[in-house]
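Reviewer 2 asked us to include a model.

Predict the structure of this chain.
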Amino acid sequence: MLTRFIGITGPKKTGKTTTIEALVPILQKENLRIGTVKVAFRDVSIDVNQEHYDVVRHRQSSPKLTLFKSGIETVIFRNEKHSLREALKIISKDLDIVLLEGFKEDLEGIPQITMLKEAGQEKEFVGDYTVALSSIPEFSIKSKHGLFIQYNKLADIVKEKALPLFPELDCEHCGYSTCQEFTKEVIRGKKNVEDCEVLGFEDSFVILKANEKIVPCKPFIQDLIKNVVSGILASLKVEEEELSSVELQISYEPKKARKNE
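Predicted model (structure tokens):
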């Protein structure tokens, strides 16, 4: 089962963190494996309590990974820059749902619940990926917007509206020019997750293109192509152990040219 993602967004001090704190135990009671992500709005570096300053010194030596282990937790620092998408793939293995906190601009392509602090903020903070609006009880905001729901219903929205990460291959097999356009249609209820033929295969070891457009290949087809190409290379005395990747390009002559021969 693919991990699904949903963002908790909104202006500053609207209770985004409070909402995630409330949602995690509710969802875990339903035997869902939950992960959380905080997307910082500015470039910062996070380290453990300064009592353990040796960890900071370890990281300053620029290793690829640093692991901090104490009696109560284990923290792995990846000392390298990743896009949000790359980072989500790293942390989401074996999780059912990941809750992300950040501003809507940082979470494009991911369905979002927008938290409000004041009446009238709906227009400014609702975007293409907004699936619901709400407000923590402390603010007691009431809205007539069609997406507004009561705070105690948010867990249901998370389970219903969270989506997997679509591949961003822009193969157009879904009928849309980009994966982001397709995602928007899924959020609007006009398309289903199953309409993406490439979902789950974006990290394939075989990528097939025709006229510069990706053709989705299921595992059986990938194995078939790889075995055929490996057989050809072996016959040409190319050892598979020496290879990291292979590119094969086939050009088709225009029909008119063939007729004139």
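Residues 219-235 form the longest helix (17 residues). Residues 230 and 243 are 10 Å apart (CA to CA). We have added this to the supplementary material.
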